[in-house]
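Issue: ligand-bound run for iron/sulfur cluster - logging full I/O for the record.

Environment: standard queue, default settings, no custom constraints.

Inputs:
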Amino acid sequence: MHECFHRGTATFMILGNLCTRGCTFCSVPKANPAKTEMPVDAREPRHVAEMAAAMGLRYVVITSVNRDDLWDGGSTHFAETVREVRRALPKARIEVLTPDFQGDTESVARVLDAGPDVFNHNMETVPRLYRKVRPQANYQQSLDVLQFARRHRPEVLTKSGFMVGLGESPDEARQLLRDLRAHDVDVATIGQYLQPTRRNRAVSEYVTPAQFDDYRDFGLALGFRMVFSGPLVRSSYMADEVNLQAREHAR
Ligand code: SF4
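Outputs:
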């Protein structure tokens, strides 16, 4: 379990610290479940909730590694974690940052039905770079997951993020924003890719602050409720701001 604490907000990573995928930008250790045991700790949902309550959190982000080896992609465990946190902290807002569940809408629905306030699934990059950056993922599938979330639970805010500096062009980044809006995503986050270890993909470019501002303005003109765009923006950046907007949205 991983957590980071900032202004009443923390992110918890569940379902272990080994991932079944090999995204080249990510430093989470990879494992093959045929060769490595990857047990799921049934007590984890309760433990996350207990820690979140002990920290007195106002905004809880729950994320996970990919678990393509599990029959439900880990969605039952994910949903149970949402329910336990809700029980322990009824006033806190809960954001789920989920994998794509290989496009399985039953798994996505299972997590949404547990009652999060925000559904976040990151696109990470533009489609041309998927094969090199997110080799086991599918661009359209991720868009479909986001749109399904909006339609299945219209009251839940949808959110997605991507990195720049991976080799995309500004036109490609703008098209990604258009695609997100066309799939009813409410909030976009855009941040600079930084190479986490030497084994990861190299940075192609450090994007200028003016270019980040251009993406933000472009996104807002498309109709996003919020666009966070800047070199240091990360997926759960300003989660408490999203929290405020989520309250507005729920009214
Ligand atoms: S699926 Fe997520 S945790 Fe796994 S390698 Fe990709 S970004 Fe990292």
